[in-house]
Amino acid sequence: LLVALIAVLKSGAAFVPLDPAHPRERLAQIVGDANIAHVLTDGASAASLPELPALRVWRADAIDALDEAAHVALPDVLPGHAAYAIYTSGSTGKPKGVIVDHASFALHCAAIAERYGAGENDVFLLFQSVNFDGAHEGWFSQYMS
C-alpha cells in the first residue's frame, strides 16, 4: 500500500483512498465527484469497486499492469498540484472531498518528522485507516526522514 501511494505521488497524480468495505454507491459517488479515471487495487479488493465504464482498474498483483506502467513518462510534480483528497461523510451523509497539495503535505510531514525527532531507522506504526487524513502524516513523515 505504501509503495503504491508513493508511486501515485511521484506519478504526478493524486490519490483518493477508497475503502472496499464502503457501499458501492458511496464509492461510485466519490469516484464521480473526484473525476477518478484510474484505480490501483489488488484482486481481493477489485470486486468491491463500482462498475463504471470510464474507470480503469489497475491490479497491483497483475503482471500486465506492471509491464504497461513501466513505459509511462513521469511529469513534473509541482508544489501546488494535488497530492491527495480525503472524503468525509459530513453532516449530510454525502461524501465531501478535501484536497491537500504536495507543498502542504510535504511541509507538514517534514515538520512532524522534525517535531518527533524521526530518523531513518525509526519505524512508524500505521494504525489509522488510509481513509483518514491523519494516517498520511505518519507514513509519509517516515519517508521524509
Blueprint (SSEs and pairs):
Blueprint: H1 2-10, H2 24-33, E1 38-41, H3 43-46, E2 56-59, H4 63-69, E3 82-88, E4 96-101, H5 102-115, H6 133-144
Parallel strand pairs: 1-2
Antiparallel strand pairs: 3-4
Helix pairs in contact: 5-6
Structural key phrases:
alpha+beta; 14% strand
Structure in words:
The protein has 145 residues and is an alpha+beta fold. It is built from six helices and four strands. The protein has helices at 2-10, 24-33, 43-46, 63-69, 102-115, 133-144; strands at 38-41, 56-59, 82-88, 96-101. Strands 1-2 form a two-stranded parallel ribbon. The radius of gyration is 16 Å and the shape is globular.
Total strand count, please?
A: 4
Number of helices: 6
Return the structural class.
alpha+beta
Strand order of the largest sheet: 1-2
How much helix, percentage-wise, in residues? 25-40%
Quickly describe the structure.
The chain has 145 residues and is of the alpha+beta class. The chain has helices at 2-10, 24-33, 43-46, 63-69, 102-115, 133-144; strands at 38-41, 56-59, 82-88, 96-101. β1, α3 and β2 form a beta-alpha-beta unit.
